[in-house]
């Protein structure tokens, strides 16, 4: 499978916003511009380098998280059917398909609704590819 780009990193503790919204994410810090892709939402998978390169599918947002500002730019990836702690683990994020640019929402609930749509789109993309 062809990837738009790949990025290695270590999972760090985020603000726990996704978890509170029912859409937990693994957070990987990055420097803007280092992925050579625009900020936004992507179909992606995550290679768990510390777990024999196990691969988990997901959807990610790369950017400044403008709806819930504060903190450094982050890659936040929601993994499908996954409920394990990944803090301090080495991972490789593989970007597969651009869904949309990063948006600012009026409420966290509006953001959650859009995240659910992003998840639906990403799952459909994986099913077709």
Keyword list:
129 residues; alpha+beta; Elongation Factor Tu (Ef-tu), domain 3; six-stranded antiparallel β-sheet; 6 strands; 19% helix
Give the arrangement of secondary structure elements.
Layout: E1 5-10, H1 17-20, E2 26-29, E3 40-48, E4 54-63, E5 74-79, E6 90-101, H2 108-128
Antiparallel strand pairs: 1-6, 2-5, 3-4, 3-6, 4-5
Give a written overview of the molecule.
The protein has 129 residues and is an alpha+beta fold. The protein has a single domain (5-128), classed as Elongation Factor Tu (Ef-tu), domain 3 (Beta Barrel), CATH 2.40.30.30. The chain contains 2 helices and 6 strands; from the N terminus they run βαβββββα. The chain has helices at residues 17-20, 108-128, and strands at 5-10, 26-29, 40-48, 54-63, 74-79, 90-101. The protein has a 6-stranded antiparallel sheet. The radius of gyration is 13 Å and the shape is globular.
Question: Could you say what the CATH architecture is?
Answer: Beta Barrel
Total helical segments = 2
Main β-sheet description: 6 strands, antiparallel
| SSE pattern, N- to C-terminal | EHEEEEEH
Report strand %: 35-45%
CATH H-level name... which superfamily? Riboflavin kinase-like
Spatial arrangement of strands, main beta sheet:
1-6-3-4-5-2
Dominant shape: globular
Low-pLDDT runs of 5+ residues are none
Q: Please state the average pLDDT score.
A: 91
First-last Cα distance: 9 Å
Instruction: Assign the CATH topology.
Output: Elongation Factor Tu (Ef-tu), domain 3
Radius of gyration: 13 Å
Counting helices, strands and paired strands, the structural category is alpha+beta
State the name of the first-level CATH class. Mainly Beta
Domains (count) = 1
């Amino acid at each position: 499978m062809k990837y738009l780009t790949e990025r290695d990193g270590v999972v760090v503790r985020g603000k726990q916003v996704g978890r509170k919204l029912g859409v937990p994410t693994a957070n990987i810090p990055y420097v803007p511009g280092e992925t050579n892709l625009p900020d936004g939402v992507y179909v992606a998978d995550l290679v768990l380098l510390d777990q024999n390169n196990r691969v988990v599918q997901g959807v990610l947002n790369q950017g400044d998280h403008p709806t819930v500002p504060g903190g450094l730019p982050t890659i936040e990836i929601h993994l499908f059917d996954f409920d394990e702690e990944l803090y301090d683990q080495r991972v490789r994020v593989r970007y597969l398909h651009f869904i949309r640019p990063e948006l600012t929402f009026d409420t966290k609930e509006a953001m959650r609704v859009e995240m659910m749509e992003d998840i639906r789109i990403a799952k459909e993309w994986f099913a077709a590819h």
